[in-house]
């Protein structure tokens, strides 16, 4: 029994320390060599993303939503008969994307949920009131509509993702506040 306590660790240690070149290559599968190379310098990487961001950024919008919320009164002041519920304005900020030139915008539902006044700010700082066409809390998706008149708006088309692969790059472009686009 004592021999197994010594022989098994010794065999494992011997196998781990052996020369890897002496092993047979028949058991190791050959890995596919990459056909593309990642950018090696930061400047190259910035230059490769810049045209995509430049084309997509005008269609990214800032969305602000406001709603009136009634806050309950403070129990301390209620005791003295001085407590009264107060109304306050609650705001929400987020971003969205113009997907049709007639003013259809896709955003997250949590940005506009319960909003009584929704405003969309374009990249050129123009603002438009928006109305909700569709809202799905389960998917956290909302579709808004703005009226820009006869003017055509910049668009970021929704593409077919059927040819996308797991390694495909995806960039979230967003403007969390209107001051971010200065």
List the keywords.
Thrombin, subunit H, flat, 29% strand, 4 helices, 182 residues, alpha+beta
Could you characterize what this model shows?
This protein is α+β, with helices and mostly antiparallel strands. It has a domain at 51-158: Beta Barrel (Thrombin, subunit H). It is 22% helix and 29% strand. The chain is built from 4 helices and 6 strands; from the N terminus they run ααβαββαβββ. The protein has helices at 2-17, 42-56, 75-79, 109-112, and strands spanning 60-71, 86-100, 104-107, 117-121, 127-136, 141-146. It has a 6-stranded antiparallel barrel. The longest helix has 16 residues, at 2-17. The N and C termini lie far apart (77 Å).
- CATH fold category name of the domain at 51-158: Thrombin, subunit H
The CATH class of the domain at 51-158 is identified as Mainly Beta
Mean pLDDT: 77
Helix % is: 10-25%
The order of strands across the largest sheet is: 1-2-3-6-5-4
Strand element count: 6
CATH superfamily of the domain at 51-158: Trypsin-like serine proteases
Strand content: 25-35%
Q: Structural class per helix/strand content? A: alpha+beta
The CATH architecture of the domain at 51-158 is Beta Barrel
Query: What is the succession of H and E elements?
Result: HHEHEEHEEE
What is the molecular shape?
Answer: flat
Largest sheet entry: 6 strands, antiparallel, barrel
* Cα radius of gyration in angstroms: 29 Å
* Terminus-to-terminus distance: 77 Å
Low-confidence stretches: 28-32, 178-182
Determine the number of helices (DSSP H or I, runs of at least 4 residues).
4
């Amino acid at each position: 029994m004592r021999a197994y306590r010594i022989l098994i660790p010794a065999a494992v240690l011997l196998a781990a320390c052996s020369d890897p070149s002496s092993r047979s290559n028949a058991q190791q599968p050959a890995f596919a060599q990459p056909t593309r190379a990642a950018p090696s310098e930061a400047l190259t990487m910035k230059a490769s993303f810049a045209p995509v961001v430049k084309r997509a950024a005008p269609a990214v919008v800032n969305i602000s939503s406001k709603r009136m919320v009634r806050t309950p009164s403070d129990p301390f002041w209620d005791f003295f008969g001085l407590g009264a519920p107060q109304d306050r304005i609650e705001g929400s900020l987020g971003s969205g994307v113009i997907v049709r030139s007639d003013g259809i915008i896709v955003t997250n539902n949590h940005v506009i949920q319960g909003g009584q006044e929704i405003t969309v700010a374009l990249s050129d700082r123009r603002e438009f009131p928006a109305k909700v066409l569709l809202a799905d809390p389960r998917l956290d998706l909302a579709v808004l509509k703005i009226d820009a008149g006869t003017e055509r708006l910049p668009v970021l088309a929704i593409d077919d993702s059927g040819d996308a692969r797991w390694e495909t790059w995806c960039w979230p472009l967003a403007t969390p506040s209107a001051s971010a686009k200065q």
